[in-house]
Amino acid sequence: MTTAPSQAATITIDPWDPGYATSVTADAVAELDASSVKLDLGVELPAERWRPITPPPREAPPGGLIVADGVRRIEARVWAGDPSGGMPVPGIAASCAAGLVRCVPGGPAALADWEVSRSLFTPSPAAADLVTRAGTYTAVRAPGGTAEQLSLALQRRLSDLEVTLATRYRSAAAQDDLLIVDGPLRGRAHLPRTVGYVKTHHAAYLKDAQAAVLAGLKPGQRTPVFLMTTSWERHSWYLRLPTPSTAPWAGIARCEATADLSRKEAADLADQCAAVIPGLAGVGYKDPRAPQNLVPIGGLEKLLRHRLGDAGILYRALRTAARGA
């Protein structure tokens, strides 16, 4: 619980629909232009010997598979007044929810844990928690007031929530499960046996012969593991999920794992993902993002959006609370 400043900022709700002027997606922020990325293609195979890799038959992870994901929603754009008389600064009132789904061999997927967080993001140092009849929006200091800075602050809160849930679950459960987190691994690479699952591509990192290997993947096959460095370093590989389309990028997902793994550990983890993830692929008549949007992710997102609550009720509660602040 944060401590309210001696003189709190006044909060005014912007009348515009909060769906307008939203920032870029979290994946777009994390995936930089390919020209700024350094690749070491020889981690598993020399670059000149790259080929599609079919993982050997294997059983599912002994502890099962855990899928982590989260959703976020901006409920209102706000203005935080300056108690000293300066210009108000922008902010957002937003909610996010994170959850874990456990998939065990031969059994149904089950919700393992979930949590909702509501926050008031603004660069104002005078902002205090905003208490509404629908819940409390905890004041969080954002690095700035641009749409991108506020959205990144919200995304960091969501990532922190996912890490908290995964750490809490694993402290009470077996450590031999495999954790798949939706999106880049950044900020979560310290979690053991964890893979970032990137289903939206904003840059084509592989070129020439390696790009041809990627385009030639069949469902269930993967590229060799390579090392990828931007502002941080991680192992990565591409795999193709089952899809009726023959387009070069159809069914392609990219996986990320910590750079701390040995060559053998990274290759073994990539094989395990290529053996397990295709079986979770979404289907087109249920999900327009199929097959990359995995069935457990799609189901978890639907449940978490419901747990966020009614956006209209929350917006009205925010306006009422702001008038009384």
From TrEMBL:
InterPro entries xrefs: NurA_domain, RNaseH-like_sf
Domain NurA residues, every copy: 152-274
Protein name: NurA domain-containing protein
